[in-house]
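Friendly challenge for the regulars: who can give me the structure tokens for this chain first? No prize, just bragging rights.
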Amino acid sequence: MHPEVISEEYGIPAAQARDIIGRETRRALLQRWQAWAWLTLTAGLATALYLAQPGNGLCALAIGGGALLVWYQVGRFLAEPAVHAAARDRSAA
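First reply, four minutes later:
Bragging rights claimed.
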């Protein structure tokens, strides 16, 4: 989901496409249970690893950091239908 593709597909400016993608991704990250389930599960695994083996703090930190990166990608995936709907509405207006 790239702003340039959304811009070309719906005939809206790229800046407006970036705004739509950002807004809908934020909404998906904060309001969809799937994003929160992923973040809770992976952060819990990282915490459990650290508590079980404190010497693996670096691994737990890497798992936690990876969890945040994947959480964002989950949000982008969940937001895609809403992005297309919002872009379609903007192009019709």
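The two ends are 22 Å apart (CA to CA). The chain has a mean pLDDT of 91. Your move, everyone else.
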